[in-house]
Amino acid sequence: MDNNNKISRTEEEWKNILTPEQYRVMREKGTERPFTSELLKGEKSGNYYCAACDNLLFPAETKFESGTGWPSFNQAVSGSVELREDKSGGMARMEAVCAKCGAHLGHVFNDAPDQPTGQRYCINGVCLKHRSKE
């Protein structure tokens, strides 16, 4: 993604924009409780956007039920999500962050063999907004 399109805000500005739960997850790299997201069983049409900056992240067609308790996708829109090595909590995994605003979204795992990419973007629902195609 072009650096000219990146969003930079102070933590105080993020606190004013996001709900306390969104701030905890997206800015402090938290995790929402499993099976609590309204988007878990979400729509299969339209698109999913970053709740912090409205960046298009996932087409609804890439969403699948993983049984993990978080919305799961097998592919992100090209250039919309950056992957970063995450060794927190004694685990080695790939963190998924919004390429536009740097918000923590969740993690990516290579454990979805029944999906075309083999990948599972395990995304916190509070990080997403869904919009139907019009």
How would you sum up this structure, described in words?
This protein is mainly beta. 10% of the residues lie in helices and 28% in strands. The protein has one domain (3-131): Peptide methionine sulfoxide reductase (Metal Binding Protein, Guanine Nucleotide Exchange Factor, Chain A, Beta Complex). A six-stranded antiparallel beta sheet has the order 3-4-8-7-6-5, with no helix packed on it. It is globular and about 40 Å long. The mean pLDDT is 91.
Topology of helices and strands:
Blueprint: H1 11-17, H2 20-26, E1 47-50, E2 56-59, E3 63-64, E4 72-73, E5 81-86, E6 93-98, E7 104-109, E8 120-123, E9 128-131
Antiparallel strand pairs: 1-2, 1-9, 3-4, 4-8, 5-6, 6-7, 7-8
User: Which strand order does the major sheet show?
Assistant: 3-4-8-7-6-5
Q: What is the element string, with H for helices and E for strands?
A: HHEEEEEEEEE
Helix content bin: 10-25%
Largest sheet: 6 strands, antiparallel
Report the average pLDDT across residues. 91
In the residues, how many domains can be counted? Answer: 1
CATH topology (level 3) name: Metal Binding Protein, Guanine Nucleotide Exchange Factor, Chain A
Overall structural class, as computed from helix and strand content, comes to mainly beta
CATH homology superfamily? Peptide methionine sulfoxide reductase
Question: Rounded to an integer, what's the Rg over CA atoms?
Answer: 14 Å
Q: What's the total number of strands?
A: 9
Q: Span from first to last CA?
A: 26 Å
What are the low-pLDDT stretches, counting only 5+ consecutive residues below 50? none
